[in-house]
Amino acid sequence: MKLRSLMLVSLAATLSVAVAACGNVGGVAGDVGPQGENRSFAELEKEARGTTVNFSLYGGDEAINAYVDDYVTPRLKAEYNITLERTPLTDTADAVNKLINEKSAGKDEGTIDLVWINGENFATGTEADLWFGPWAERLPNAKYIDWESPSINRDFGHPVEGREAPWGKAQFVMIYDSAKVEEPPKTMDELREWTEENPGRFAYPAPPDFTGNAFIEQALYGVTGEVETYQKPFDERVFEEKSPEVYEFLNEIEPNLWREGETYPESSTKLDGLYQNGEVWLSMSYNPQLAQRQIEKGLWPKGTRTYLLEGGTLNNTHYVAVPFNSPNKAGAQVVANFLESPEAQIAKQDPDGWGDLTALDVDLLPEDTREEFSEPEGKANLSAGELQENRVPEARSEWLLALEDGWQERVLKE
Amino acid sequence: MGGRVKIALLLAPALLVIGVLFAGGLFAAVVQSLGYLPAIGQTEISLDAYREVLTGEDFVDSFLLTIYVAASSTGISTVLAVLAALVLRRSSGRLSAVVFQLPITIPHLVAAVGIALVISQTGLGARLAAALGLIGEPGEFPALLYDRYSVGIILTYVWKETPFIALVVLASLRGVAGELEEVARTLGANAWQRFWYVVFPVISPGIIAASLIVFAFTFGAFEVPYLLGKTYPTILPVMAYNEYRDIDLTARPAAMAINVLIALITAVFAALYLRLARDLGRG
Amino acid sequence: MGKNVGTKSGNAGLLIVTTLVALPFVPLFLWAFAGEWRFPDLLPSAWSVRGLSYLFEPGGRVLGATLNSLLIAVSVALASVVIGTPAGMALGGYEWRMKGLVIFFILLPILVPPLASTMGLHVTFIRLGLADTTLGVFLVHLVPTVPYTAIIMTSIFAERTGELEEAARTLGANPWQAFRHVTLPEVAPGVAVAGLFAFLISWGQYILTLLIGGGNVVTLPMLLFSAASGNDPIITSALAIVFALPAVLALVVALRFLKPGESDDGRGFVGLGKVS
Predict the structure, then answer these.
(1) Is residue A304 part of a domain?
(2) Which 3-state string (H, E, C) describes chain A?
(3) Do C112 and B98 touch (CB under 8 A)?
(4) Taking the model in full, what pTM does it have?
(5) To the nearest whole percent, how much of chain C has pLDDT over 90?
(6) What are the two backbone dihedrals, phi and then psi, of residue C46, each rounded to the nearest 5 degrees?
(7) Considering the domain boundaries, does residue A217 fall inside one?
(8) Chain B closest CA to C249's CA: distance in Å?
(9) Within 13 Å and on the Cβ side, how many CA atoms surround B94?
(10) Which of A102, A175, A245, C196 has the fewest CB atoms lying closer than 10 Å?
(11) Who has greater pLDDT, B247 or C184?
(12) CA-to-CA distance for C48 and C31, rounded, in angstroms?
């Protein structure tokens, strides 16, 4: 008898867990709406003193981790008495997924205060109403940012609306080892030829890795010969019409990729490792200063050089955003403001560390500060002018999502 | 009656933990797999997710790969374990126990990392090959990681599971089987006869039981293939996790459906194992 | 096969097996102390303490993660022993009608991957505020460990006949005294083994911690995984060695203080046959 009732109790407990999972407890958490931040920055600073801010960002690049841990964290402690906790992410989409889970479970106080984000992840978050704000244009250092520029106020085509603060800029570049490669390919056609002549010496990270996405996006621009089309809202018919060419191209080069395309490096970090080992001779990055940085660290061959594709390469801004359920919104904004400060941006651009380009508009800076944003030096670096003259905007994220899904179906699975 | 109350009380904590955290979780997975996600407004139950998953090419590819990895790991481990146990039963008992027990306690991730550093194209093996003049460049060394045949994954499982099975076999060999073998020898049987007619029948139930456990485990394990596997196809648990991580919540039922299927398949092995163990007890 | 030849081949076999078992550790130790080690060198061209200093960085992530791992694993070991021992007593010492079903139920989480049930449980945990907490991680770690402790204790109790307890009872001891002074000392080695197993299982968990901990609860395997996905074998190897340490220590402890027969987990499994 007692045994049976014990079983029944266990069953009841099991069912109640299941019911709890089903129940819709506060599924529609408070509308993040247009209210945003209305306290003054002085108030925010005061409130943030002595608090902890959790900053979630991609953790696979040691140089970025070092910049945050060794420069940002101590400075925040010293100047604002804020303790910054860096939470490494394998993929920013994981943080977005977590926030979506929390939103649907009605969790009003989460664990992430600030997240490094842009592109599709930001767009998905906007659709799911995950971002607190607007707040970014009210920050003191926002005056050094050119909010009029579409490369700032639109993130992969999506309006930013003050819900994320620009942190830095990226531009897609190609990298090659000049000791092994005489003439690196500048167009997709040339790439096809090059991989035929040098099988196994090129690879791109598998989407949805950020850099991998960029490569297939460049392929989209290059193979279809169009850029403007993809700045417009997504059109399924146009996509169906144009994309087969792109997939055909990617399938054509696949057998001549590293490992004959049987597997793709899962991240840009892994691709960097392949280049470092000498397994591939041609690579890519979103950081134009990466090559120089790695050469100076003694990790990459001295003959490494950076170059751009014909027609220009993708450039974008990356940002930091505050989730709807951040437990320390004041602290998050103070940190964001510090990240945008000229001194933090100069330290970030230092090729000995991260080498990430600034999001600030140097023309808006006072002259003496402007001078500290020096021209990138070193043989593997391209001049700021060259980068600026050869850039193309990113496509709207819906095109990219369709492109990536299609890559999974039509290229990865053959 | 006091006895039954006592039994119930003794079992209560364990049954509660497993009932709530494990069975409850599986039940929740079943519910979600049927499409019931009120949080995004889906309250209709249907088998759509199962239909989608089971008819999808991904699932079949992934399922086949998982079976392949589990079967190869189990098969190779079992054969090696029996061989190792047969050879080692005559050597120092304490030492062989230690040697076998070490891999059992070492976490899978450590084994995976260590083995990866041996078999990668710039690993110890490749460097040895280069030193012997067999290869010139990393690319010439065979690709054993992130590869189609999941060599790295299988090697890691073999390294970890062979000692486990070997210990089971060794225990058996040093017990009843050893005595029976002595009897057979005095009766004039040769080595092969002794093995096939005496030793093997005695140790085989134990081998099968241990193999069932290893198969079920390698079927549902996550960490090693996540680290050392290739992009596509991946094994079932990794596929479930990837679906789960999809920002598009409408993929959630599919992720749960895969979980439920994995649970069903491994539960069958659990049942098989128990049947076998019960027969063992009677025999 | 004469005894002499057997011994020779036995020891040769031991050598081969030992080499294979030790093989993965060779690159780990070399890389952990390496400074520079390019292909195709067989040994590092420069040694350094970069790996070690990463481990012991004051305020670094490794110390915190290790403490977290230890805290969780020890609590899980204690809890699962407390939960599993009475279950083992019931299963090992008594017979009743639905016993097979109960054993099957308890055995399930060993063979059915806890990942499946944890993914299902995740949303509920978020609702209950257990996600992103150490408590939540502790709870899910119980799922793979309790069945192990229950089954190990089952086979321990199955071998006991209860005679000693009966003798104590006839001498006037009450049930609790009999348990404390007779049963407990006898099963203590088994309890220790069960606890050790539970500790190791919890110590080695990765995906359960990642899923429920949400990246907020950082344990050692997560640092290792993250490093292993990167390009720095020096850091990865240093972390791997630290991660493996408790496992080796546990083995040493088990071998010194417990008799080899009892720490033979193989019997724990096959022994199930005797129980049902």
Answers:
(1) yes
(2) CHHHHHHHHHHHHHHHHHHHHHCCCCCCCCCCCCCCCCCCHHHHHHHHCCCEEEEEEECCCHHHHHHHHHHHHHHHHHHHCCEEEEEEECCHHHHHHHHHHHHHCCCCCCCCCEEEECHHHHHHHHHCCCECCCCHHHCHHHHHCCCCCHHHHEECCEECCCCEEEEEEEECEEEEECCCCCCCCCCHHHHHHHHHHCCCCECCCCCCCHHHHHHHHHHHHHHHCCCHHHHCCCCHHHHHHHHHHHHHHHHHHHHHCHHHHCCCCCCHHHHHHHHHHCCCCEEEECCCCHHHHHHHCCCCCCCEEEECCCCCEEEEEEEEECECCCCCHHHHHHHHHHHCCHHHHHHHHCCCCCCCEECCCHHHCCHHHHHHCCCCCCCCCCCHHHHHHCEEECCCHHHHHHHHHHHHHHHHCC
(3) no
(4) 0.86
(5) 43
(6) -145, 145
(7) yes
(8) 10
(9) 6
(10) A245
(11) C184
(12) 10
Average pLDDT of every residue of chain C: 84
C54 found inside a domain: no
Contact predicate B47/B274, CB 8 Å: no
The least confident of A190-204, A318-332, B57-71, B196-210 is B196-210
Residue C27 lies in a domain: yes
CA distance A16 to A147: 51
Residue in chain B lying closest to C114 (CA): B22
CB contact under 8 A, C119 and B240: yes
ipTM value, please give it: 0.88
Q: Do C113 and B221 touch (CB under 8 A)?
A: yes
**Which of A3, A180, A398 should be substituted to probe chain B, the one whose Cβ sees the most B Cβ atoms within 10 Å?**
A3
All residues of chain B having their beta carbon less than 8 Å from the beta carbon of residue C264 are 97, 167, 171
Task: Please state the φ and ψ torsions of residue C60, each to the nearest 5 degrees.
Answer: -80, 170
- How far is residue A98's CA from residue C207's CA, in Å, rounded to a whole number? 15
Higher pLDDT pick, C269 / A356: A356
Candidates B4, B16, B146; nearest CB to A1: B4
Closest CA to B248 of A106, A101, A18: A101
Number of domains in chain C: 2
**A213-227: pLDDT as tens digits:** 999 999 999 999 999
Q: What is the pLDDT of residue A4?
A: 57
H or E segment to which residue C127 belongs: helix C114-127
Tell whether C156 and C29 lie within a shared domain: no
C73: confidence class by pLDDT, cuts 50, 70, 90 = very high
Q: Tell whether A204 and A244 lie within a shared domain.
A: yes
B90 with C9: Cβ contact below 8 A: yes
Pairs of residues, one from chain A and one from chain B, whose beta carbons lie less than 8 Å apart: 102
- State the residue range of the domain holding A331: 41-167+317-375
CB C27 within 8 A of CB B123: yes
CB A331 within 8 A of CB A323: no
What CATH number does residue C271 fall under? 1.10.3720.10
Using the beta-carbon criterion (under 8 Å), do B4 and A104 form an inter-chain contact?
Answer: no
Q: Which residue of C has its CA nearest to B172?
A: C267
Partner C contacted by B90 (CB < 8 A): yes
Q: In terms of residue numbers, what domain contains C145?
A: 60-275
Residue A31 covered by a domain = no
DSSP character for B92? -
Residues of chain A with pLDDT under 70: 1-35, 414
Residues on B contacting A at a C-beta cutoff of 8 Å: 1, 4-5, 7-8, 11-12, 15-16, 19-20, 23-25, 27-28, 31-32, 36, 38-40, 57-58, 61, 121-122, 137-139, 143, 146-148, 230-232, 245-247, 249
Pick the CATH number of B50-282 from 1.10.3720.10, 2.30.30.100, 2.60.40.10, 3.90.190.20: 1.10.3720.10
Same domain, yes or no, for A403 and A287?
yes
Number of domains composing chain A: 2
Question: What is the reported pLDDT for C50?
Answer: 85
